[in-house]
Structures
1.
Amino acid sequence: MLAFHSLTSGCDTFSTFCGIDDECHAVLQRFVILLYDRASDFQNINDCRRVLFTRKNRAIENIPPTADALAQHIKRATLQASIWNNSLDSQYVIPSPTNWGWTVTSDGSYRSVWTITPEVAKHCVQLTTCTCRKRCTSCKCIKMEIRCKKFSVCEGQCSDSDR
């Protein structure tokens, strides 16, 4: 940790609830990039994700989170660190978790906000493929109400009339 001085100085801002500025977020992105690829020159975590996944053939589990997912995690960690840091203060008022990576569910409990970026599969149907060999009955294509693609296992042979 001592070798990454900008991270150490950046963590000093977590003792107060001033928020996470762009400079601090950039330092944390760079730190996380180095955790996944020590030789990387990337400054942007999304660019690093793309290269690690496409060029270095890393499994999705072995690439860093998206910039948005990292930002949500930083918010939750900052809230927790602030609560711990002020735990001996008898008059400490805990800020609303909804501003720090949490959302309130219908039953009044809190749930983590993992990301605010929509899932790519829901918005990029070209990436959806099915594994049906002949006639599709319950594949991803049917669930998303789209026609099978030529790069699916069925090679696009399934059609709406076959279903």
2.
Amino acid sequence: MEITGIILAGGKSSRMGRNKALLQVGDETNIGRIKRLIQTRTDHQILITNDPDSYEFLQMPMYEDEHKEHGPLAGIEVALKHSETPWNLIIACDMPFADMEIARFLCKKVQESGAMAAVPEYNGKRHPLFACYHKDFLPYVVDALEEGEKRMVNVLDQVNAITVTEEDLKDAGWSEAHLKLAFYNMNRPEDYEWVQTQQV
């Protein structure tokens, strides 16, 4: 199962007040950490960003949104267009503790089910920006963007997408404490302060 790891770094970090992808987590940048993690469990890696100059240090293929101001959906569109593998792991740059074993679990689930996407659910919320997608999801994204749709969950509701529940993840052996870290979103200054208290 060949997988492309895709980092989305197209947001404006408005709630953080500064570029959250470039914040220091441990002894590396947040996005550098995520790149290192996805390299351990994916065969190819690409970055989606509208500010490529800020990420040249990563030395990885970069692509910009074709539909500006359309949020993560536009990032997924260009990511799937440029991916050369059927399966694709999408991960947002605000998840410094994203677990790559969970990522592989998601990709295995979607392959076994024959679905087009596997999206985890934790604490009552789906996480479409830490999920596994088949390249066949692309036409639905394109159609949605052309119709002015910006919400990822609305597109997912139109296709054969499976939800990997919190219970599924716990049954597979991950604890509540581990899941809290794995799905932690770093969006505000207080979120970053908490991240800095963790051992990484």
3.
Amino acid sequence: MNLNKEIQQLNNKLDLLRRKLVAAQSRGDELVIQQFERDIAALSKKAASIKGQQSRQNASKAEGLKALPFSRALTKQEQADMGKLKKSVKGLVVVLPITALGKELGLKEVTGFAPKKF
């Protein structure tokens, strides 16, 4: 399963448990409250683990891109016709600064990474 989907599902379950916990607290049901708190702690731990796994994957992708011999910022004209650019440059990887990978690399503008100069 995709890590993003798995994190989203865990967050949805956490939301549901937190709402149920508030309802149980308003009723004063101690056994149910303890069970929900244990479940919330377990799901939170699992979500943190998956987020760590996701950050490790991004770091390894970033290292792979940094290893490519050539990179440069793309012009607006190149960005407008991305299909043509990708066809003309073999092995081009385009990274946007708003993505997790772009943030990992510390990019400020759209950048292309390739094995040869383009």
4.
Amino acid sequence: MLTGNLMQWNDARGFGFVVGDDGKRYFLHVSEIARIATRPRQGDRLRFEPALDREGRLVARKAVIAGANLAATRDTLRRGQPKAGRRLEWRYTLGLVLAFSIGVGVLEGRLPWAVLPLYLIMGTVSFLLYRADKRFAEEGRWRISEAMLLACDLAFGIVGGLLGQAVFRHKTAKPSFIAFTLLIGFVHLLWLIGFAAGWIQASDLLELAKTVGSV
């Protein structure tokens, strides 16, 4: 273990940099800090395990802030209580419902076949964007804007976006982002229900596109 000082900390983005007693600069992500009752602050003294990331850069692992009060873990708070079952991540559930609706709609001929590759391609793009933004956050690099992530979800990438959020545990704590994600998910769900119920026809969309194009 090595000791050092937290010389830079971005609390909103959950990362900062430690200058170790060896004079080297280490990247530190909030997930590597032992649970504490307060947020990390610039100037904190800490112990950590020096390591290298996949690209060979210096990072701090298993950091413990000196003098910090450790926060009680969930297991400690539940000690003596019956164990609860594992909670199902709602993003998986919503993504599965959307994927099922798309598949059934296409197979029953209520959705145009072109919709399937559209959702697949944009879903893959959205998933990869969340993975990249998570990595950028961990490495302290320039981030992908939230507007771009949400726009990709809206543009038929919602299934991949939900999967990316759940798999990488990214953008899962900010209330406004969660609200927009839910809104986009339900907009797509209503759109798919409209096709399944026959309220929306492919011919109607073509006529609408022609009308918009002629304006």
